[in-house]
Amino acid sequence: MIVFKKQSILSQLSEDGNLMSKAIKLQSKAAEYGFDWPAVELVFDKLQEEISELKQEVVLSNLESSVDRDYYQERLQDELGDVLFCCMNLARFLKVDPSKALNSTNDKFERRFNFIESFVAQQGKKIEDLSLTELDKAWDQAKEQGL
């Protein structure tokens, strides 16, 4: 039988409302007590494992059309949470601020999508008139231009 301590080591962490920060704080605190991966390669392995588990839940949720959707939504949420938590651990290992990384990627996505919109408008079309393949080609052009 497992007996829980009244006061967890993790309960000492302050709440700042930032979920990415909380994940990193939880992992950092656990690491102080030896609960950590010894190398970043193992974090990548764990991330691949978590992605595989998420993929498995996606397949199961699509196969079981007649059963409780709430159950599968909860499973998908749980597995996606594991992937995100692992990504925060990777950010900690790489010493990268995940908020800054995500903000940078959001900005990059906006620049590239704006390029696609301009590209499509120059052809006198609407974005929904192009296939995904055509949109991907425009995306690749945006990348080539350093956007």
Q: What would your notes on this structure say?
A:
This protein has 147 residues and is an all-alpha fold. It has helices at residues 19-32, 40-63, 69-94, 98-122, 132-144. It is extended, with a radius of gyration of 21 Å. Helix 1 packs across helix 3, helix 2 (40-63) packs antiparallel against helix 3 and helix 4 (98-122) crosses helix 5 (132-144).
Topology:
Blueprint lengths: L18 H14 L7 H24 L5 H26 L3 H25 L9 H13 L3
Helix pairs in contact: 1-3, 2-3, 4-5
Can you tag this structure with a few keywords?
single chain, 147 residues, mainly alpha, 5 helices, extended
Using the CA coordinates, give the radius of gyration: 21 Å
**Outline:** extended
- How many DSSP-defined strands? 0
- What's the helical proportion of residues? 55-70%
Spans where pLDDT lies below 50 across 5 or more residues: none
Helical run tally: 5
Give the integer mean of the pLDDT values.
Answer: 90
- Strand % is under 5%
Q: Which structural class best describes the helix and strand composition?
A: mainly alpha
Order of helices and strands: HHHHH
Alpha-carbon distance between the two ends: 57 Å
Largest sheet: none
